[in-house]
Amino acid sequence: MSDNTAKLSLGGETYEFPVLAGTVGPDVIDIRSLYAKTGLFTYDPGFTSTAACDSAITYIDGDVGELLYRGYSIDQLAEKSSYLEVCYLLLYGELPSKAELADFDNRVTRHTMVHEQMHYFYRGFRRDAHPMAIVTGVVGAMAAFYHDSTDISDPQQREIASIRMIAKLPTIVAMAYKYSVGQPFVYPRNDLDYASNFLHMCFAVPAEEYQVNPIVAKAMDRIFTLHADHEQNASTSTVRLSGSSDANPFACIAAGVACLWGPAHGGANEAALNMLRQIGTVDRIPEFIERAKDKNDPFRLMGFGHRVYKNYDPRAAVMQESAREVLGLLGVENNPTLQVAQALEKIALEDPYFVERKLYPNVDFYSGIILDAIGFPTSMFTAIFALSRTVGWIAQWKEMIADPQKKIGRPRQLYNGPVRREYVAMGDR
Ligand code: SDX
């Protein structure tokens, strides 16, 4: 544990900055007065060494591969809890009593329908639009509908907006899927649990009764839990930065959806399954391992590596176990893609390139295998990630809005453009 000040020697002067300690994890050097004292900025593109806020929601220890939601480990929550219980935990900080969970479940259930006019937005998209393009647009469009829950200075309105987004994202994502396959939208049903309701809205058709497979529903619920929050990742930081200007809450979550779409972030689950299919068979793995190591080849092992985890992503471990269980129960345990994934992981984790760089499978490496077995097209994978992460974005947004120290986020830069110069008339150029 460091002492409580950091000293900076600069130009013959020594400056002192407080070192702040959290409950667990790295201490931080509070440099808020650095510019005022020294006239210098810090420089940290990609924020590899920057804590942008303090938070009490999610803790990650990347060295040991630990992930805690409000202090509870992800493997215990994945095994013993449910997604809605995890939503309650992330939002309010404690596991709910039976009555609290029933009330929360009821509040979410009664907000699952979207305004009927929102159906018209879908008609405006091409049928082959990527579901994430649709979800980004429709979530942003929620800002045009729910005027009674956009005054962010009112805690009650913040709460209603939060419940609406957690409740409606599955409906919006399921509608994007239905639109892409040319089937009619299926309304949510209040007699189904959260995961079953999502599966029913995706796979039911008017022509016949659709029975949700309880094994699949449990796997779906666990996938939601594994993706629910993850500290200050790129999309969460996007939501916080958007929210720091007191922007409309629905617009802030839409910004998070947009950021998550990138293949370096949440889009990696779609890219990982497409990569495993491109590899196709175990004997082609060495060819792709070499490509991933070749600096002249833009190819990377999708679903591998992480900014924080320098050990096995604990979510990937649970996801791999769940993949084996679900595929076995569905009678597709000899799924060739799972075999390629497991062989690829084994070979990569024995290769010095990956070992030296501490590159391990992350949450996106196995999730697509389960989603594919359930029947989703790869284009739906990131939309399902967005649905799952909505509660994390909202919990982090609520924490920021309620923070008495809240300030608009406004980073500076190291400028290396032209110094001041006079305008040159066209005739003199
Ligand atoms: C998510 O932040 C979060 O918490 C995100 C997330 C969440 O829940 O919100 O966990 C979800 O986004 C998981 C990550 C999904 N993305 C991928 O699987 C895409 C593939 N992975 C990478 O692009 C990469 O690992 C990142 C983006 C995830 C992390 O990149 P960093 O931390 O900026 O690391 P880097 O790019 O500087 O890589 C360090 C070294 C480099 O080699 P050298 O320059 O040192 O020689 O490792 C290499 C990289 O070339 N490397 C890889 C690699 N990932 C890193 N080489 C091959 N394949 C890879 N996947």
UniProtKB/TrEMBL annotation:
State a single Pfam family of this protein: Citrate_synt
**Catalytic site:** H306, D364
Q: Does the keyword Transferase apply?
A: yes
Gene Ontology MF term list: citrate synthase activity
- UniProt keyword DNA-binding present: no
Task: Name the InterPro entries for this protein.
Answer: Citrate_synth-like_lrg_a-sub, Citrate_synth-like_sm_a-sub, Citrate_synthase, Citrate_synthase_AS, Citrate_synthase_bac-typ, Citrate_synthase_sf, Citrate_synthase_typ-I
Give the reaction(s) catalysed.
oxaloacetate + acetyl-CoA + H2O = citrate + CoA + H(+)
Highest taxon of the lineage: Bacteria
The metabolic or biological pathway listed in the UniProt record of this protein is: Carbohydrate metabolism; tricarboxylic acid cycle; isocitrate from oxaloacetate: step 1/2
Q: Which UniProt keywords apply?
A: Acyltransferase, Transferase, Tricarboxylic acid cycle
Q: Would you name any one GO CC term? A: cytoplasm
Instruction: From the UniProt record, give one GO term of the biological process aspect.
Output: tricarboxylic acid cycle
PANTHER family, per the entry: CITRATE SYNTHASE
The entry assigns this protein to a family as follows: Belongs to the citrate synthase family.
Q: What is this protein called?
A: Citrate synthase
Q: Which organism is it from?
A: Pelagibacterium lacus
